[in-house]
Structure formats: C-alpha cells, structure tokens
C-alpha cells in the first residue's frame, strides 16, 4: 500500500480488525520509509458494476459517491454515521448481487429513496428534491404532503 505522506510503495500492517458493521476491515499501517501511520479500509467487492446514467453515459459504480449523497441528505439530522454506512452497504450489496453487469442510475436512486424513507423523513425529502428534480414548488408541496400523510398513517 502506497504511503499517502511520502508515496513510498511499502508499508506494514500494524493492526487489523473488522469495522462495527462487519462489512469491511480496518487496517492501521506504518510506512517503512518515513514511519508515518495511516488507516485503510478493505471491503469485499463481488463484481464490477457499471452505472448507466442519463444520456447513456456509463461509469463504474462508486461507493463513495453513494455515501456522499446520502450523507448530504442526512446532514444536520440525528442519523448516526453507522446507520448511513449500513444503508450504503445494503444498497451496494443489492447492486452487486443483482446479477447484471449494468444498472440504471434511476434504480440506484430508487434504492436510496426506499432506504431514506425508512431512516429519516427529512433526509428522504431532501434527497427526493434533488433526485426527482421538481420543476415547480407545487410539485414539491404535493410530494411533501404524501410523506406527511404516510408518517401520520394515512395511505
């Protein structure tokens, strides 16, 4: 593993342990040249998945982009980082085990919406406001009222 401080190619693992949600391994490393210590995370990747975006653009599935968008929706909410990590890991697992080499970005967006709906209604509305790209305030109001009705137990 390359040292992030001096770019030397050799480092030693000093400690390894699973993360709290057991979806990755946290490793403490020490550079054999400069002696700096740093942490890396190792995750299982079942298969390479390509995301088909609008306009038929394609790019590799990127867990960090998914985590960033969910974290942004949950910003300043009482949602623990562990809950976000579990949601991201669950979505990643669904994407990788779907058996398809390509997945539309809309499908990933729907998986995020389903997860956020159960996690936090405000984060759900925040994500939906960007994902659904409401053209008018009325569209947003209608969507928010359906979320409120669902929270109150009405269909």
From TrEMBL:
Record carries keyword DNA-binding: yes
UniProt cross-references to Pfam families, sorted A to Z: ATP-cone, Zn_ribbon_NrdR
Required co-factors: Zn(2+)
ZnF (unnamed) residues: 3-34
Annotated stretches, region: Disordered: 1-26
Record carries keyword Lyase: no
Domain named ATP-cone: residues: 49-139
Textual note on the cofactor: Binds 1 zinc ion.
Record keywords: ATP-binding, DNA-binding, Metal-binding, Nucleotide-binding, Repressor, Transcription, Transcription regulation, Zinc, Zinc-finger
Annotated Basic and acidic residues bias: 7-24
Function: Negatively regulates transcription of bacterial ribonucleotide reductase nrd genes and operons by binding to NrdR-boxes.
Family recorded in the similarity comment: Belongs to the NrdR family.
NCBIfam families: transcriptional regulator NrdR
Protein name: Transcriptional repressor NrdR
